[in-house]
Amino acid sequence: MEKYNRVFVETFGLKQNFLPENVTRNEIKDWDSIGHISLITKLEDEYNILFDTEDILKFNSYLTGIDILKKYGVKL
Amino acid sequence: MEVIKAAGNTIYIFKTKVIDANTYCFIEGNDALLIDAVQSDELQNFLLSLEIKRIAVLLTHGHYDHIMSIPNLRKQFDTVVICAESGKDILENPRKNLSAVANHINFFRKDSIWEKEELDNIIPFRVTCDFTLNDRDVYKWKNLEFQMICTPGHSADSVFYLFCNTYLFSGDSLLKGREPILRFPGGNVQDYMRYTKPIILSFPDTVEVLPGHGARFKISEGTVL
Fold this sequence. Notes:
The complex is a heterodimer.
Chain A: H1 2-12, H2 33-47, H3 53-58, H4 62-71
Helix pairs in contact in A: 1-2
Chain B: E1 2-6, E2 9-15, E3 22-28, E4 31-35, H1 41-49, E5 54-58, H2 64-67, H3 70-76, E6 78-84, H4 88-91, H5 102-107, E7 131-133, E8 138-141, E9 144-150, E10 159-163, E11 167-171, H6 189-202, E12 208-211, E13 217-218
Parallel strand pairs in B: 4-5, 5-6, 6-7, 11-12
Antiparallel strand pairs in B: 1-2, 2-3, 3-4, 8-9, 9-10, 10-11, 12-13
């Protein structure tokens, strides 16, 4: 989970202690179209996977992201 | 198409119907020099109407919106693509040139960087580069000279081309009324602040900017972080 959290923190410039599990796309200022693509590509690089389009579009919260990564066999 | 004069040379400007991206075109005989190659049927038809045979494309960086017409240009003209050394890998990778995620960028757009408009469905693509330039290299085309200046930050391969010490083709590293976007994959705030911002601030007020998006402007009007 440490890698996953780090990608979130770095991508959106969050303070380490601000990463509540229930956070969604609308609650993070920089999680706009550019932030989303940046998050997706960083996670792909980090875990050496390629997200399907459907999953890129579904990925709208911290918890959803965890579920999606599990589909790709990522152990968090 | 807009036509302007720069140091006695004619520059033809072609724009995309969305996101206002620019291609700048010089013509001499059956040869054309393009700075970036945006999606434009008008550009393609213009080159065909002039019976252009050879095209050199100087790239300000490798993002999809600046390279989209290269695959079609290569089919119809003897085309040479030139970019910064760091751009080769970006051009050849649809994830890095953003063509693989362009539709998602549009889908998720809630920001107001550009007005939300419909984009064509973009199919991921790759582009190959024929040769590369290094920082401060001068590219000679006919009797014209373009000095490439590396300006990392928006992307690792972002560059300016300085023409006649007066005209600056700035790509997406310097725009008017829009801060440079440094959050795309490969973007880097530290590089922008360390390298690119001092370069921008070093130019005299006489420099005119021909940006990657939008209308030209005086360098003092550019938006710097």
